[in-house]
Amino acid sequence: MSLISSFPIMSSSCNPAQNTIDWTALRSDFPLLSQQAHNKQLAYLDNAATTQKPNAVIEAIAHYYRVDNANVHRGVYELSERATQSYEATRNKVQNFLNAWSREEIIFVRGATEAINLVAQSYARPALKPGDEILISAMEHHSNIVPWQMVCKKTGAQLAIIPINDSAEIMLERYQQLLNEKTRLVAVTHVSNALGSINPVQQMITMAHEKEIPVLLDGAQAAAHLSVDVQALDCDFYTFSSHKAYGPTGVGVLYGKKRHLDAMEPYQGGGDMISSVRFEHTEYNSLPYKFEAGTPNIAGVVGFGAALDYLSAVGFDNIVQREQQLLDYATLKLQAISGLHIIGRAKNKASIISFVLDCAHSHDISTILDHQGVAIRAGHHCAMPVMERFNVPATARASMAFYNNEADIDQLVRGLAQVFKLFS
To answer: CATH code for 10-53+315-423?
Structure first.
């Protein structure tokens, strides 16, 4: 059954311009959520790590392998043409999803991590010299720290760090001061994976562009939770991963302004990224294929297209509203627990709550919750500098998606009661 024909959306009688979602019916689109863990109903609250996949995505991948499995771009037979059409249709969907100016600005990669590495090696590294600076924030994921450290080590450039306040918000005055004639690129997260903070990226991009400094946004935690318009943002690069947006693993996107991508050398060499090869000289392919060497994850890209269709059917107005409801409910429940401390209280926040308990380490919290059927993340969340900033070894993190419900959060709270029972 197709997504559109089966999707549980009903027109609102009070306002025909709005949609009312049957969230209970929608949850049934995600088969994994119906299973049990340790003989208890699964409450999956690790969506910042990866999201679950709707049937439409699973079926799209299975259909490709059952019916259309062939390599793309190279075959002149019907099977290959169908595979290519499905693969390239997803590029068009990503262009619309981000409101990019051109489909040529959409590069398929393995994930946001590879996208950032591509920009670091193909855009930043050739232009950097000793004394130059790459400006990142104190709340970055390791994927938006280590690639810049690597190019700085090779070029003699340096990292400059935008500080954050005790509420886990970027300090814009200090950011303004750090933008200077040595700054060659700003690379910041749109939404913090460890804290949930939604950064004021529109303002930050404007401030950087006033000094003609390009900006990369790590959108891994944002793309599935906020409506992203790269033309309105005017960012130079935007990265995100399929698996955090209800699609399969192993697929991601680099958006880049065409003038930047045209000027960049390829990150990898091989098949499909060339127009002609001689032992003396190679001519590179046109965009976007110049950056897509080798056989891609065709089935993953096809599944990613189905995930984008699904998100479009739900609608970001509905997603934002529902996830804010869940965040508010969870915050109210958790902050009422004595001995629990929420890390990250930004005024503008996505549906992520990191917390610590006075009585137990985050790994113990996660282990006990697992036996209560609750799946959360525990540790440094690939954001060790964030843990140092807040002087904690690790946090427990509950992250919610629109398919979660209040019962999941209540199950989390009951599980925490078991933690206190064992450790207090």
So the answer is: 3.90.1150.10
